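fold description:
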Amino acid sequence: MSSRGVQGEDNSATGARLRALREEAGLSLTALATRVPYSRAALGHYETGTRAASPAVIEWYERIHAQSPARAEPLIEIGHPHPDESGYSCPFRVDGLIEGEAAGTDPATALHSALQTIGIELARAGRRRQRSAATTVVRDSVSKAR
């Protein structure tokens, strides 16, 4: 069998299982790729079934799933501030919400700016989650009333 595997129902079913394991662990494809020895692109192919997942790939997914309890909050990553043409930049990522670089005149200001941006995005995500939960409660109440 080639490295691309054989397309078919078997690959699709395995891919759907792999995707479910990743999502239950609360990880994006990009976040998973930082934890396993496979690229984001390769993981995407395994999950869509365009490539057959080897037993080693499946083992990695299961290991990551077992080690990562599903998180209610996204993973936050903040890099080291580094000099750029306008001062300093500080890379950051809130898994599933936002990714970027915050600017500042010095490393501390760039880091502070990144933290502020992350706080704003988490607050927005929290408000969306609260509205979603409130909508679900209202729908449940309406359904029971009928």
